[in-house]
Automatic annotation (TrEMBL):
Protein name per the record: N-acetyltransferase domain-containing protein
Keywords associated with the record: Transferase
Species whose genome carries this gene: Candidatus Abzuiibacterium crystallinum
Domain N-acetyltransferase stretches: 3-160
Gene Ontology terms for molecular function: N-acetyltransferase activity
CDD domains, sorted: NAT_SF (cd04301)
Amino acid sequence: MKVNIRAYQPEDDGAIQGLIADIMDKEFPQTKAAYPMDDLTHISTVYGGPGDAFFVAVDHHQIVGTVAVKHEDKRVALLRRIFVAPTHRNQKLGIGLIEKAIQFCKDNGYQELVFRTSSKMDRAIRLCQKKNFQQRASLEIGGLELLKFVLFLGNGEAKS
C-alpha cells in the first residue's frame, strides 16, 4: 500500500467530513457532543493561518486519514483531528500522520505540541504515547474523562 500524506486542499472538504463523522458516529457516539465538527466546515479558514496546518492521507484518491495542527501561541501548537479509516489501521499510517504534524511544528519553531482527547480514544492515545507525548492532565466532566498530552519539541526560541 502506497499512501501519500499531503497538505489539505479545498476539494478534500466533503471526504474529510465524511471520514471523521463516520468514525465518530460508529466508534465514539458517547463523546461526539464533546467534539463539535464546526472546524471541519471551514477547514481552509480554521487551519489556514500562519502556524496552522491540515494534512490528509490519500490512498488511490481516497482520503483515509487526517491530522491537523492549530496555533495556540508562539510556543504551543495543538494537535487535532487524528483519524485513520478502519481499513487502514495497524499499517503505521497514524504514526506517519503524527510525524508529519511534529515535523511541521518543528519547522515552525513550536516548543510544545499539545493533544487533548477523551480516554475513549485509546488508539489516538497509544499513537501519541509511541511518539513520546506525556500525559499532563486529566479532568472528568459528566462521566467523560478528558486527557491532555504534551510533546516537548526541544526547539529554542519560537518564531513570531
